[in-house]
Specification:
Helices cover about 35% and strands about 25% of the residues. It is α+β, with helices and mostly antiparallel strands. The protein folds into 2 domains: about 220 residues, Tetratricopeptide repeat domain (Serine Threonine Protein Phosphatase 5, Tetratricopeptide repeat, Alpha Horseshoe); about 70 residues, Immunoglobulin-like, CATH 2.60.40. α4 packs antiparallel against α5. The chain starts with a helix and ends with a helix. The relative contact order is 0.15.
Amino acid sequence: MRSFIISFCFLSAICFSWVQKLDAQDKTQYMALITSKTGNVLLKKAGRSEFVKTDWGTQLFKGDQVKTEVNSEVSLTFSDGAIIKVPPGRIFEVSGSNPTSPAVNVPVKKATSSMMASMSALNTRRENSRDAGALAGVRSAGIEEPIELTSPYNTLIKTSRPTFTWTPKKQFDKYIVNLYNSKGLVWSNRVSQNSLIFPEGEKALEPGETYFWNVEGEDLLDNKKSPSYKFSVLSFEKSREVLDQEALIRKTFDNDSDSSSLHSFLGAFYINQGLLQDAINEFEIISGMNPDAPLPHEILGSLYSDVGNKEKAIEELQKALALSKTREK
């Protein structure tokens, strides 16, 4: 176990070293983020002579220049909440003046202060995730569970009728899903597949309550049970707040619903609300939209660490490490 944790720490430290190179400039000068890009987008840092490839999540400082090539574009989210899209074949320089200057003649979206607060919290997570020690030991090492629960998993959830999913290390004939609350067993349901849509005949979960669940695998020769993990349902009041904020974010990007900027703001908001499984879903989408970017996998590694899924945390850190090495070549 000790050697495993040491290896994990070593992996994490290497993985995040490339981020430190990006952030060598004074954080107080940070002015914008790349929150969406398509095609080949280049960046020339202030004081540098060459443009280099850039990725989702790159921080931009005064004097940095972003260049879009043919069939490419990039969305920049500024610290004042302005969101602009640089069209193909343009160069935009980040300056201390109004980011909506005529240099880019496109409509400007505006993020609310609450949306920007979530993005600020995401940036704090980005900084804190470099603490490799915080990622180690998220679960006891060296024990492979026969059935791994995947969702809901140590998180808040929005719905009172969630779908339960799990991954078996071997296939069983049947699975029994057991749901508990503080008073004991709520219900058990038997299925043959690796998921269970909330049973129609069962009462919806109570808002604001915490539940625990596990899965038993059955076959002719062997029965195995997963560990139990918890999740909590949002309260009525909090659920309304979340729905209102989701609607506001989606409205901000109503003409750009396929942009990773939308998923960036949603993911940041979910993290800020403790809706970690929803945040994981959003950053999985972002990583799919930005296959060359290491940062989404870094964030996913941190999120999986938070919910206690050590294996997935390591997997995402390895992806971030591999992509960062490719980027440096």
